[in-house]
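4.2 Preliminary Data

To establish feasibility before requesting continued support, the project team ran the inverse folding procedure on a target of 71 residues. The structure was first converted into the token representation described in Section 3, and no sequence information of any kind was made available to the design step. The complete token record follows.
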């Protein structure tokens, strides 16, 4: 995949996305301020995971709606 310049670009973007996701595991956005999350706090982890799920569903719904509207 990474034999062409475009392949290297895709590889770099994927690597950046992976690094960003790993970084985001430790930080949560509270009122615009980042604070270190205690990974041992189950309620906080549940809230964070639930929020991520809700965001994914919201984005998916929007994409689906746009596809149906434009289709």
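Position-by-position output of the design step:
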């Amino acid at each position: 995949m990474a034999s062409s310049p475009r392949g290297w670009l895709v590889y770099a973007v994927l690597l950046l996305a992976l690094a960003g996701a790993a970084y985001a595991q430790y930080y949560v956005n509270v009122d615009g301020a980042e604070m270190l999350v205690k990974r041992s706090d189950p309620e906080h982890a549940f809230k964070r995971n639930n929020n991520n799920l809700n965001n994914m569903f919201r984005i998916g719904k929007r994409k689906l709606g746009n596809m149906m509207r434009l289709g």
